[in-house]
Amino acid sequence: ATQPASPGPAPAEANTILLGEVGSLTGAQATFGVSTRNGIELAIKEANEAGGVKGKKLAVRVYDDQGKPEEAAQAVTRLITQDKVVLILGEVASSNSLAMAEKAQAAGVPMITPSSTNPSVTQKGEYIFRVCFIDPFQGFVMAKFARENLKATQVAILQDNKSAYSIGLKDVFTQKFAEMGGKVVTTESYSQGDTDFRAQLTAIKKTKPQAIYVPGYYNDVGIIARQARELGLTVPLMGGDGWDSEKLFELAGNALDGSYFSNHYSPENPDEKVQKFIRDYKAAYGGVPDALAALGYDAAKVAIAALERSKDLSGPSVRDAIAETKDFPGVAGNITLDKNRNAVKSAAILQIADGKTKFVTTIAP
Ligand code: PHE
Q1: pLDDT in tens, the chain (365 residues)
Q2: Position in ligand 1 atom list of the atom nearest CA 165
Q3: 174 closest CA partner among 184, 163, 166, 164
C-alpha cells in the first residue's frame, strides 16, 4: 500500500474534508474490498450532491491492502501522517481491522469498520467503532438455527486457523451449540489459501455429522464445498457472513445447494430505502449489492452524519459525535452504537439454491 488506489485531492485543499479508506481491492478476497468501495462511493456521492458537510465537499483517499494485515496497518499510518484524514473507514476481514485499529487508536483518529465482526476489533479502544453485529451473536444465531431448524445434534467444524474471524466463530458456535444440547463432534483446521481440504473432510466424514459449520471466507469455502461433495459428504454446510460473494457460486457450482449462512442483510427486504439503495447501486455498478456494499454504504452514512453533528473536525470531537449514533436508519438495519462501540442488530439466515441465495428468516438479538 505505498500508493493510494485513488488519488483524491491534496490534503491541504481548503474546501474538502478528506476521509480515508483501506480495503482488499485486489487479492484473494477482492470482492470484499470492491463491494465496500462501491457502497462508500455511493454514499459520498449522495452527500456531495446534497451540498457536502459544513459547506465543504467530501473526498476519500483509498488504499488497497491486498487483503494483508501488515499492508492494512501501513496504509493507516500513511492516511494519518501523510494524508491527515479526519476518519478512517475499513476493513472487512477482522484480522486486517485489528492491525488498523491499533494504529488509529494510538493516533486518536476515529475508525469505523463496516463489517468486521470479531469482538476484539472495537476493544482496541474508544476511537474504534463498527456498524455491524459481533460474532458472539452471529455464532449463537447459527447454533440456534442448527439445533432448532435443522434439528441437528451432531455438527463438525472446519475452521481457518489463520483468521481471527473464523476462530472466534468456531469458539462461540461450539459453546452455544453445547448449551443447546448439541455436540461438536470434531474440529478440523485449514489455513486461508489452501487448496486441498480432502484430509480434513475425510476425517469429518468418519464422525457422521448432520451438518458442517465452515466459518471461513468465500474463496476457500467454494473449494471446500466442491471437495466435500466429491467425497460423498451430502449434509448441509453452514457458514457466516464471510460466505457473502457472488464469486462463491463460481467456485462452488451447485455444491452449496441446500446450505445456509448468516448475513447482515437480504436484498429481498421490501423496505423502500433498501430497494432504493439496490436500484441506485445497480444503476452505478451493474449488480445486486452484497452485504459488504450495504455495510460500506451504512458506515459512510454514519460517518457523514457524525461529521455534520461534530462541533469541529478534530479527532476527539468526531469520535464523540460517532459515539452518539442512535436509531440511524441503515440499509442493513437500524444502527445504535452501544457503550462498547458496537451495533446491536438482527441477523438474516440465507439458504442457497441453484447458485442463488434465498431469505429464510431473521434472528433478533
Ligand atoms: N465479518 C467478517 C470478518 O470479520 C467479514 C465479512 C463481513 C465478510 C460481511 C463478508 C460479509 O472477518
Answers
A1: 556 776 555 554 669 999 999 999 999 999 999 999 999 999 999 999 999 999 999 999 999 999 999 999 999 999 999 999 999 999 999 999 999 999 999 999 999 999 999 999 999 999 999 999 999 999 999 999 999 999 999 999 999 999 999 999 999 999 999 999 999 999 999 999 999 999 999 999 999 999 999 999 999 999 999 999 999 999 999 999 999 999 999 999 999 999 999 999 999 999 999 999 999 999 999 999 999 999 999 999 999 999 999 999 999 999 999 999 999 999 999 999 999 999 999 999 999 998 889 999 999 98
A2: 12
A3: 184
List C-alpha distances in Å: 245 to 13, 220, 240: 37, 12, 12
Q: DSSP code of 268?
A: T
Give the predicted TM-score (pTM) of the model. 0.94
Q: In a mutational test of the pocket of ligand 1, which residue from 116, 264, 342 has the highest number of ligand atoms less than 8 Å from its CB?
A: 116
Ligand 1, CB within 6 Å, residue ranges:
32, 92-94, 115-118, 165, 241-242, 244, 291-292
What is the 238 CA–ligand 1 centroid distance (Å)? 15
CA distances from 239 to 119, 131, 170, 224, 242 (A): 18, 21, 10, 12, 8
Of the candidates 80, 211, 221, 272, the one whose C-alpha atom is nearest the C-alpha of residue 101 is: 80
DSSP 146: I
Residue 46: helix, strand or coil by DSSP? helix
210 CB contacts (<8 Å, ≥6 apart)? 150, 152, 153, 154, 155, 235
* Grid-cell match 488506489, residue found: 5
Distance (Å, rounded) from C-alpha 363 to C-alpha 358?
Answer: 15
Nearest to 273 by CA among 350, 327, 344, 329: 329
Ligand 1 midpoint to CA 348 (Å): 14
141 CA to centre of ligand 1 in angstroms: 15
